[in-house]
Amino acid sequence: PGSNMIYGGRLSHQISGVYTFGVSYLKEEKNSATFREEAGVDLWFRPVNKVELLGRSSYNNDTAGWMEHAYFLVLGPFDKLKFNTEVSWINYEEYFTGTTASMFTLRSGGPLDPHEKVTIAGEEVVYAVNKNWTASADYKSYNYDIAGPASSYGAKLTYFLPKQYSAGLSVRRMDGDTNKLKCDEYRV
């Protein structure tokens, strides 16, 4: 019969402390036929102290479409404050094409529409209370092409002992136009 193989790699270039830029490729074959083929780019860029840009873009070579773009801007820390900005775009149909487990297979009529696309924009403000305690608050806006708009907001408190452990709790609320886009999340 056929064979199963997975192979790929990542090439990168960097100037230590300034930037890292990478390109990657992945191909998976099942029974000698292409099951999944993806390419991507990733970057980390620190043009000046306290400013970092990082992100990735992933491309589905099988279907010739972008799976996702996810980029983050980190500013700080300024005294005790840090700002994390996120802008992401995900195309579910491209992203979940080559799933390795049936639970990730999207079907029409399921909880996630396989033709859905979402744009996410958000901001998190992190405050270092002291060397062990950190508090943060965040807000994200979700713009789903099919399900409609939604917003989420939350807060988190974290206790950290370097090289020993960390613990925390968070609370989050998501509000959207439909019941699928409404939920509360509590984490310890």
Summarize the structure.
The chain is mainly beta and 188 residues long. Helices cover 2% and strands 69% of the residues. The protein has an eleven-stranded antiparallel β-sheet with strand order 1-2-3-4-5-6-7-8-9-10-11.
**CA gyration radius, whole angstroms:** 20 Å
Strand order of the largest sheet: 1-2-3-4-5-6-7-8-9-10-11
Question: Percent range for helical residues?
Answer: under 10%
Number of helices: 1
- Tell me the major beta sheet: 11 strands, antiparallel
Choose one word for the global shape: globular
Mean of the pLDDT scores? Answer: 92
Name the helix and strand elements from N-terminus to C-terminus, one letter apiece: EEEEEEHEEEEE
The secondary structure category is mainly beta
Low-confidence stretches: none
Beta-strand percentage?
over 45%
Amino-to-carboxy terminus distance: 49 Å
Number of strands: 11
Overview of this protein structure:
By secondary structure, the chain is an all-beta fold. It contains 1 helix and 11 strands. It has an 11-stranded antiparallel β-sheet with strand order 1-2-3-4-5-6-7-8-9-10-11. The longest helix has 4 residues, at 92-95. The radius of gyration is 20 Å and the shape is globular.
